[in-house]
Model the fold of this input.
Amino acid sequence: MNKPHVETPPPGLWAKALWMADRTPENRNRTVDFLRALSILAVVLGHWVISAPYFSNGIPAYSHILDLAPWSQWLTWLFQVMPGFVFVGGYSNSISWQSALRKNLGFGAWFDSRIRRLIGPVMPLIGMWAVMVAIANANGVGPTMIFIGSKVALIPVWFLAVYILVVALVPLTHRAWQSWGLASILVPIVAAALIDVAFFTADQHTLAWLNYPFVWLAVHQTGYAWHDRRLTGLRTGLLLFAGGLLSLFALTQLGPYPLSLVGVPSDAISNTLPPKLPLLALGAAQIGLVLAFEAPLKRWLSRRRPWATTILINGMIMTIFLWHSTVMMLLVGLAFWVWPTLLSAQPDSSLWWAIRPVWLLIYAVATLPFLLTFSRFERPGKPCGSAPVWRQLLGIAITCLGLAMLAIGGIGGPGWLGLRWVPLLLPLIGFAFATTAARSARK
Done:
C-alpha cells in the first residue's frame, strides 16, 4: 500500500518561509503575526538605541540615554510596545484556547505547550550566563561589571514572568469575557486607577504591585474583544488612538506620572515597576492604531514577500527577544577591553547620535549566529502527555519568581563561583517540575 505523499519544506530559512507563505490558509489573521513580530523588533531597537556605554574620566561607564538626556524619554512612547504585544496575545490565546476546548485537550495539555514555547528558550540563556559569569569571576572581572552585564542581558525575562502568569489565567479570563463582555475590561481598569490613587495619595506602594495583574489583564481582555469583533473599524480605532494619546499626555504632563514609559534609574517613580495608568493609555492608543490600519495591513500582508518575512521573523521571535541584550553586552564588553576608542563619543553628542546606526547594524549582524544556534529551542518536541495542573502552576510560579529575581538583580553575586544560586536555580527547578511528568508519560 502506497503511503500518502507528505510535502517537506525546502532547505534554507527564506525558502522555507516562502514555502510556508504559499500554504497559509486564507482565513488566518496575518495582522496578528505581523504585530507580534513588529512589537518584539521595536523592543530590540529601543534597547539598542538607549544603551549608552562610554568612558567617564577614563573609566568605563554604562548608562542609557534616557537618564543622560531627559528629552529622549519621549522616544519611549514609540518603543514601549508591550501593551500591543499583550493585546495581540489575547487574540491568539482566544483562538488557541477555544481550539483546545473543541478538541477536548483540557487546560493541562494546552498550558504545557505554552510553557515549553515561552519558557523553554530561556533555559539556554540562563545556562550560558551562568558559565560566563563563573569564568569572568574566576578571571578577576569586577562584581559591578558582572552585575551590569548580566542584569541588562536578563532584563527581557521580566516580561515573560508576567506574561506566562497572564496565560495561566486564560480559562478564567476568557470565561469572564464570555460572561461579562466589555465589563471584564473595565473592571480591571477601574481597579488599576483606584490603586494608583492609593499609591499617590496614601503612599500605598506595596498595594501598587497588584497592578501587575490588573493592567496586563485589562489589555489582554481587549484581545478577546478584537477576536470577537467587538472592537473593530476605522472610527473606533481613531477614537481609541486619540483618547489614549490625550490621556497619556494628561497623565504625564498634567498628572503625577513620569514622562518615560520604561524605567529610568533617576526617576523616583516608574510607570512600569509596577505598571500604572499611562501603560493603559498607551495601550489604548496602540490598539486604536491597530484597528484603524487593520484593513490595509491585511491587504499588504496578503502579498507573498511581506508575509514570508513575517513568518521568518516569527519563527525565531523568542530568540531575538531573549538574546539581543546579551549580544549587545558582549560587544560592549569586547569594545571596552579591545578597542576603547570605539566608545569615546559622549552620549547625546552629535557624534554619538551619528554613529548609532553603525552600532545598530553591528548589533544586528552579531545577533545572526545566535539566532541560527538557539532558535531551535523555540520548536519543542510534541509531548505525549502533560504534568498534573497543580504541578504546572506551582512549577511555573517558582520559575517566574526566579526570572523576576534575575531581571532585577542579574546572575552574579557573592556565592560560589560568583553566582546568585537561588535565582539561578529557581527557573531551572520550576521548569523541570512543571514539565518532567509530561516527558515521563512517554515511557
